[in-house]
Design brief:
This protein has 101 residues and is an all-alpha fold. It is built from one helix and no strands. The chain is rod-shaped and about 150 Å long.
Length: 101
């Protein structure tokens, strides 16, 4: 009877240890999964931030280009207007060639 009790106790202890090991393994597995989820979420957040920064840079470059084009058009229009105004009021000089007749 003593041998039976000893074997039963050993079996119960072994089962308890195995259950604790499984619980620990599951807990560790759950922690690793949570850490992986957090890392992926952080990567997504960083990627989104990088896309927003890149979009901002492109938008600012586009606005700068549009502003330059607008300034060029206005300065070109002023030059053309000034040229037209001066040519309409200024006398025209015509070079006359002597005839060979």
């Amino acid at each position: 009877m003593i041998a039976y009790q000893r074997a039963t106790n050993e079996l119960a202890n072994h089962r308890a240890e195995r259950r604790k090991a499984e619980i620990g393994f599951e807990s560790k597995k759950r922690q690793e999964a949570e850490e992986l989820r957090r890392n992926r979420q952080e990567e997504r957040r960083d990627a989104k931030e990088n896309r927003e920064i890149e979009h901002h840079h492109y938008a600012m470059a586009l606005k700068a280009e549009r502003l330059e084009q607008l300034i060029d058009r206005k300065s070109g229009a002023k030059a053309a207007k000034a040229g037209a105004a001066s040519s309409s009021h200024a006398p025209q000089l015509v070079k006359v060639e002597p005839s060979a007749a």
